[in-house]
Input
Amino acid sequence: MSNDEFHKIKRLPPYVFEQVNRLKASARAAGADIVDLGMGNPDLPTPKHIVDKLIETVQRPDTHGYSASRGIAGLRRAQAAYYGRRFGVKLDPNTQVVATLGSKEGFANMAQAITAPGDVVLCPNPSYPIHAFGFLMVGGVIRSIPTTPGPEFFHALERAVIHSIPKPIAMVLCYPSNPTAEVVELDFYKDVIAFARKHGVFVLSDLAYSEIYFDGVPPPSILQVPNAMDVAVEFTSMSKTFSMAGWRMGFAVGNERLIAALSRVKSYLDYGAFTPIQVAAAAALNAPDADKHIDDVRQTYKRRRDVLVESFGRAGWTIPAPAASMFAWAPLPEKFKPLGSLEFSKLLIEKADVAVAPGIGFGEHGDDFVRIALVENEQRIRQAARNLRKFMDGADETLHNVIPLRA
Output
């Protein structure tokens, strides 16, 4: 029996990012210097005081046993305190906070906790893959809604409630958006919560990029809306804020019923992150200078954003400046639109030594875009722009050779 005969595997499309990753690895093996702006893997070091706390704790023998699946008490208290400081939201660390192995695991296990086969979930398109595939893997059905906030967003919600059978059980939101970097204001969340409470729909908000914003207005939490706790859970991550991607540390907070369901599922599946990691994560959240570190990270990504927009623009590719997140959502240059995002991404590796993430990997409505991650320093971004300029100068010849192959 081959893998593609298993029911859950059949529900998953080919992972398009893997095609780009293979090409990238092959180019590097051949000696190419690839500027990798594809994966959203922070290149900044984890702050020293967090690493020091990990080292200190890992040397205690009493921290090497099984940990707490929903997170040690000190870590849950630290996350509740962060929500109080940052958003003015009061959380009970015992019933409204659970630590997750990154926000990705939290989403996947929440889907497992609340979804019956055939349940309908509303999900933005384009969106981060786990938002949809967490539900697809457990037998749910995805109905796409717009990523862009506005009247059409709410029209889509109304149509979904009228025309979906059965009625949707939940909707997924992600602002600042991965991949599109869209942001919303609190009034948008107020309208979402009003809709969700009226129709009995849960709201699952991904706020992984809450601290990576550039234009002076901190992204709000959906839990700031009065009565949001009745229907909403929010997922956050230490990965980007504290450059702790490999540590796999995140949180789900909010509605007690949903948090209890997630905790119950997790209790059967894992014993939580290694205790020293949880202790170090609590130290990160509680540190007196945490805000200064976060601002340093924010300014680093802002400088990279500005260099990307300026240098790629001079190279002939206009990139809209993202207001938040560590990504730019870039429309394909006009000449290359017929190729689609996957073939264009492959060409960038082959001809320009630059890796980006094809938009099709985030949903069919992403195919006219690529996602560019701000995970290389300014010098490397400028190098990518120089490579890109040569690539764009030879665009006509490149397209002449490529498009007949796709016809």
